[in-house]
Amino acid sequence: MSLFTTHSIESAPTGSKAILDGARKSLGFVPNLYANLAESPAALKAYTDIAVKFIRTAISS
User: Fold this and answer.
1) Sign of the C-alpha dihedral, residues 28, 32, 34, 38?
2) Which residues contact 31 (CB under 8 A, 6 or more apart)?
3) Please, which residues have CB within 8 angstroms of residue 11's CB and are 6 or more apart in sequence?
4) How far is residue 45's CA from residue 34's CA, in Å, rounded to a whole number?
5) Where are the domains of the chain?
6) pLDDT at residue 34 in the model
7) pTM above the 0.70 mark?
């Protein structure tokens, strides 16, 4: 079983640093999910992109 690396902004791969820094600035902290997804900049970007789309979507009943 492999463990996920929980990255800080400093330890994250280059492609993830800006996203983690943006989360810290907007939320006041870096969520653990983001810190774990940071190992793959593409996965972190995909997750944050879809999260923004869900926030902007409104389903009326």
Assistant:
1) positive
2) 23
3) 5
4) 9
5) 14-56
6) 97
7) yes
